[in-house]
């Protein structure tokens, strides 16, 4: 059986596509704010990846929904945009099966055929680089935003909460 190492899969993918990135080893951070300070990046540069389960209207789909770490996801909007009626965060077991990662360590890349990648467009509008945990809570990758968009080609879906 092949050893599944998300970090190796990520760096191989990035190298194959001539991506501009750097790897950072660091202590485990808790919240997004903490890890941004540890990385020396802005909170909004963080690419927060949420594994969601969208259902309804005969629709059942796992979605890796990526948005800036300084934003909150509106799962009702996400469900509607994907074609379902409701969405929820996946269970820890589902997250592990679909990403081979624990909560907080999920990179904004899908390596599973049943996990659809979507990203909020704001992720690409503010910063030249994105930062994310690379399959581990102690290792991050800081990647040129345009390279992430070029390599992953996510479906662009606005699903962040807006303040009225």
Automatic annotation (TrEMBL):
Sections of the chain in a coiled coil: none
Membrane spanning stretches: none
InterPro entries: PROXY, YbaK/aa-tRNA-synt-asso_dom_sf, YbaK/aa-tRNA-synth-assoc-dom
CDD domains reported for this sequence: YeaK
Protein name: Prolyl-tRNA editing protein ProX
GO molecular function: aminoacyl-tRNA deacylase activity
Domain YbaK/aminoacyl-tRNA synthetase-associated span(s) in chain numbering: 27-150
Domain of life: Bacteria
Pfam families: tRNA_edit (PF04073)
């Amino acid at each position: 059986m092949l050893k599944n190492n998300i970090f190796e899969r990520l760096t191989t993918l990035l190298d194959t596509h001539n991506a501009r990135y750097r790897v950072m080893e660091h202590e485990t951070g808790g919240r997004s704010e903490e890890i941004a300070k540890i990385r020396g990046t802005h909170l909004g540069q963080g690419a927060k990846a949420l594994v969601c389960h969208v259902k309804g209207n005969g629709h059942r789909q796992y979605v890796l929904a990526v948005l800036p770490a300084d934003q909150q996801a509106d799962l009702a909007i996400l469900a509607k945009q994907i074609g379902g009626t409701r969405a929820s965060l996946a269970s820890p077991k589902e997250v592990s099966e679909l990403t081979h990662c624990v909560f907080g360590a999920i990179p904004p890349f899908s390596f599973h055929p049943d996990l659809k990648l979507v990203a909020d467009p704001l992720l690409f509008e503010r910063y030249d680089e994105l930062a994310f945990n690379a399959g581990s809570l102690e290792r991050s990758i800081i990647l040129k935003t345009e390279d992430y968009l070029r390599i992953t080609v996510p479906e662009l879906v606005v699903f962040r909460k807006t303040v009225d």
